Amino acid sequence: MFCNQCEQTAGGHACTKAGVCGKKEDLAGLQDLLIHALEGLALFAREGRRLGIVDTAADRFTVEAIFSTLTNVDFDPERFVELIHKAVEHREALKQQIAAKGGKTDFPEPQAGFQPQGTTADMAKTGADLKLLETLDTDENIRSLKQTLLFGLKGICAYADHAAILGQSDPEIAGFCYESLCALMARGLSVSQCVDAAMQAGRINLRAMELLDAANTGTYGHPQPTAVPLGHRKNKCILISGHDLRDLELLLEQSAGKGIDIYTHGEMLPTHGYPKLKKYPHFYGHYGTAWQNQQKEMPAFPGAILFTTNCLQKPGADYTDRLFTTGLVGWPGVKHIGPDKDFSPVIEAALAAPGFSEDLDKGSVLVGFARNAVLGVADKVIAGVKSGAIRHFFLVGGCDGAKPGRNYYTRLVELVPKDCVVLTLACGKFRFFDKQLGEIDGIPRLLDVGQCNDAYSAIQIALALAKAFSCDVNELPLSMILSWYEQKAVAILLTLLFLGVKDIRLGPSLPAFITPAVLQVLVDNFAIKPIAASPEEDLKAILG
Ligand code: FS2
Ligand code: SF4
After folding, report:
1. What is the rounded distance in angstroms from the CA atom of residue 111 to the CA atom of residue 396?
2. Where in this protein does the record say Cysteine persulfide is found (predicted)?
């Protein structure tokens, strides 16, 4: 196997024997075979679009299938076998529609005629033999840029899928997926063509995040500043992880009045701020920290646990029997709640588990500072900047992970001077989310904008401030210090670059799939830089 799509890739190079994430060789082969099958589908879908054929079922499927291959989503080989077969079915259906309109159906690429054969193991071997990532091009820089495009695409599809679940979609996103999958197969592309494709991925990801923002705020209202307890109260309990607000709502509805409290885990924390979710009295608090600590934290949770979307790790034997997955997330042998979203097994497991036997006060954290809440006090913020009470904004956001170097982010937030405000989002915040940083003229110094996809909200805040100060975003007293782990972070980074944001500091390490020459292009055009060896160094460089 060869996989280098995430930050924890083995040796900072690639996972070649087994994934550090737990992805085994057979699963890696099946995921690559799925991308191969989707490339075949893309050839026909692109031709179909040329003829005015837009197959919404194929579009929806493509987005889901690509998202399935994102880090820590689905570890179940059998589900990938199913997806591979479905990709071929969609391709053949499109082929018929195209043939009926006299379009092109004789593509020379092997992907166009691919037929899955044999057992799951046979298919895994076929996938491995493709050497998908290693053969994207003979030129290492083109390969690097094509990997950037593919990984960015995985992030885009995650957000597009979440948005589609709540009824928000745009055919341009699937159209871009097809164009990109075709670009992966194309030979002879130049560096500038590939850079342009990566920038377009940034643009499309902005659209996907915009749709998701519209979906979340349109369905559940704009997040409001809300204190979330970190302790617990005596009752039965369910822990919900991931990013899917609709799953949370359904769980809240189905568990209401049953003597169960719902706790959020990881990226679900910001959901406490949404008016239509916080109205449920049994939506109680938050448990645990970021995804990489789940094997340590979950055994002690005395109830049922539900994973939506992603960031699942190999479950420990001490909680597998009360662990559930839903949506695209999966682990072989873990009970999966299907599309009917009947969460009764989760509720029954919670009722059978001991629950919390007493109340425990561990303080609270504030969430809910998305664009509507922050821009609602824009006058105060602008006055604070003008008077000098607020010297600088730091956006410290992104993914968390297991590497020791990630302590940089904790230390940085601790060291940020008292006349500066920290905006945060995504699961990287768990390095400092419970720090009491106080206020500046009534504005909290630590503002949680939301989930990783709420990077959209942070961008809107930055654009509104730039407008108020009649300056460019890059001229604002704002520095972005980002941490990355999986491919949604790649997509967000591409969006920031597409918007022309400069001087981003990225850590804890730079992507293994970026070659020195491609990095130089990014440095030359965007002054992107790795985080310094110490936060003191970066703070000195930023604040002078
Ligand atoms: Fe964190 Fe994991 Fe949000 Fe990522 S909980 S690394 O999925 O997308 O961030
Ligand atoms: Fe390795 Fe990351 Fe790929 Fe998992 S997703 S196999 S950890 S590079």
Report:
1. 42
2. 399
pLDDT tens-digit series, residues 33-72:
999 999 999 999 999 999 999 999 999 999 999 999 999 9
**pLDDT above 90: residue 252:** yes
> CA torsion, points 223, 225, 226, 228, in degrees to nearest 10?
100
Q: CA 75 to CA 81: how far, in whole Å?
A: 12
Task: Say yes or no to pLDDT of 539 above 90.
Answer: yes
Residue 171 has pLDDT above 90, yes or no: yes
**Cα–Cα distance for residue pair 444/460, rounded to 1 Å:** 19
* pLDDT recorded at residue 404: 82
Atom of ligand 1 nearest to the CA of 427: 1
Tell me the pTM.
Answer: 0.98
Closest ligand 2 atom to 512 CA: 8
Burial class (CB in 10 A: 0-12, 13-18, 19+), 333: exposed
Element (H, E) at 316: none
CB 317 within 8 A of CB 295: no
pLDDT at 382 over 90: yes
The contacts of residue 137 (CB under 8 Å, 6+ apart) are: 143, 146, 187, 189
* Residue 249, ligand 1, Cβ within 6 A: no
Residue 330 has what pLDDT?
A: 98
**Residue 485 Cα distances to 1, 85, 132, 440, angstroms:** 20, 30, 21, 32
Q: Is 177 one of the annotated binding-site residues? A: no
Residue with the smallest CA separation from ligand 2 atom 5 is: 71
Name residues contacting ligand 2 (CB within 6 A): 3-6, 8-9, 15, 19-21, 23, 71
Tokens describing residue 454: 């709420």
What is the predicted pLDDT for the residue at 32?
A: 98
Dist. CA 441–CA 377, nearest whole Å: 11
**8 within ligand 1 shell (Cβ under 6 A):** no
Gap between the Cα atoms of 345 and 338, Å rounded:
11
Ligand 2 site-directed mutation target among 21, 31, 331, most atoms within 8 Å of CB: 21
Amino acid identity, position 410: T
Cβ pair 491, 469 in contact under 8 A? no
Return the pLDDT at 405.
Answer: 87
Ordered by where they begin, the domains of the chain are: 10-219 (1.20.1270.20), 226-352 (3.40.50.2030), 369-543 (3.40.50.2030)
* DSSP conformation letters of 381-438: HHHHHHHTS--EEEEEEE---S-GGGHHHHHHHHHS-TTEEEEEESGGGGGTTT----
pLDDT exceeds cutoff 90 at 403:
no
Residues in contact with 457: Cβ distance below 8 Å, sequence separation at least 6, in sequence order: 213, 370, 371, 374, 425, 449, 450
- Which residues lie across from 423 on neighbouring strands? 395, 447
Q: Is the pLDDT of residue 211 over 90?
A: yes
